[in-house]
Fold:
Amino acid sequence: MTRRKSPDSSLMRISQAADAAGVSKQTIEYYIMLGLVKAIRRPGHRGRYFDAELVRRIRLIRRLNESGYTLRAIRETYLHRL
Structure:
């Protein structure tokens, strides 16, 4: 099975972004569902893509959540500033 390359070498597929951020794919999907992260959609390409800035944001969300902040508090207090 060969992996498809992302349409832009600076973009990552969800599994690559999960590895880079140190979380599971399911965690990223949950963050998307809650509106904490929005994946990049490429016209003419299937799938969701993530850039370095989105990976940084995912890491920040994870660290804040591990520090005791709820995901709701993170979304309402911190993410509107980013």
Q: What stands out?
A: The longest strand covers residues 12-13. The mean pLDDT is 86. The helical segments are 14-21, 25-34, 52-66, 71-78.
